[in-house]
Amino acid sequence: MSRSLYHASHKLSTPIIRIDPNEELNLICKLLFYQPTGYHANSRKLYKDLKKEGYRFPFKKVHNWLINQNEWQKYAPSPKDTPRTYKWALTIIDVASRFKYAVPLTSKNSSEVAKAFKKIYDNPNIPLTWPDLLQSDGGREFMGETSKLMQEHNVIIRVIVG
C-alpha cells in the first residue's frame, strides 16, 4: 500500500481518508440547510451558522453553493431593483404568412419606431418584405419619421380606431 494514505503518527492499520474540500462543503451545507430548522434566507445566515458549528469555509463558496440549490431558488426573495431598459415592444404580425416578430423599444418616439421598422425589414434573416398596408392604432409613434419611412417604401398606413 502507498505510504501517502497513512499518517506517520497512526498505526499502519489506521487509514486516513482524505475528503475533497468541495465535497466536504457540499455535505456539510446540505446537512445544515436541509434540516427542518435549517432554511437560510440568504448566504450570510448559512455562513454564520457554519461558523457557529466550527467550519471555516470561504463565504464566496458558501454563497455559490446556496444559490445553486433548487429549494433556495424557489423561495429566494425577489430582486429589489431590476433595471428595465426596454419598456415597450414593436410587434409585427404578417397576416398572410402569420409570421410574428417583436423589437424591444426604450421609448415610443417616432424615430425609434422607424429604426425598429428598418431593423426588421432590412434584416435578410427575417422573411418579410415591406408591406403594402400597415394597420396600427392611432399612436403618435406612427407619425413623423415612421410615416416618412412608410411613404419612402410606398406603404399605406391605416389607423384602426376602437
From TrEMBL:
The Gene Ontology biological process terms listed for this entry are:
DNA integration
Source domain of life is: Eukaryota
Gene3D superfamilies in the cross-refs: Ribonuclease H-like superfamily/Ribonuclease H
**Per the database record, which ranges form the Integrase catalytic domain?**
54-162
Q: Which residues form a coiled coil?
A: none
Q: What Gene Ontology molecular-function terms does this entry list?
A: nucleic acid binding
Q: Which InterPro entries match?
A: Integrase_cat-core, RNaseH-like_sf, RNaseH_sf
User: Which Gene Ontology cellular component terms are annotated?
Assistant: nucleus
Could you tell me what this protein is called? 3158_t:CDS:1
Gene source species: Paraglomus brasilianum
